[in-house]
């Protein structure tokens, strides 16, 4: 499947909000055999979570709400991984509103690889502006 393969209802980009440190790790690992997702056991099950809202679409507090509701009010959310969901395996499925999940089997010892589907990364500056680096 290529990035031109469109699945109806699927957005053109998904955004995984993370930390600046994780973005730096991903950039350093791009030349390595695999960049792996930060899989978590969230409310919709285990897997790799993302939003269909980019940093330009909402303010930080709204993005935090969409990601965590009340659960992680201190998460810095100063990094973002942007990717093409058409290249994802396993596939992403909409869970609720803006939340998408690529499920992994419980007990999976290796999260999904994401390096091949990354299109950009970004870090949020102290002034709130996002610096986005295109990878394609």
What do you see in this structure?
The chain is globular. The chain contains 2 helices and 8 strands; from the N terminus they run E-H-E-E-H-E-E-E-E-E. The chain has one domain (14-134). Mean pLDDT is 84; it is low at 1-6. The chain has helices at residues 20-29, 60-68, and strands at residues 14-18, 40-42, 45-51, 79-83, 92-96, 99-103, 118-124, 130-134. It has a 4-stranded antiparallel beta sheet with strand order 1-4-7-8, covered by helices on one side. The chain has a 4-stranded antiparallel beta sheet with strand order 2-3-6-5, with no helix packed on it. The chain has 136 residues and is of the alpha+beta class. Strand 7 (118-124) and strand 8 form a beta hairpin. Helices cover 14% and strands 31% of the residues.
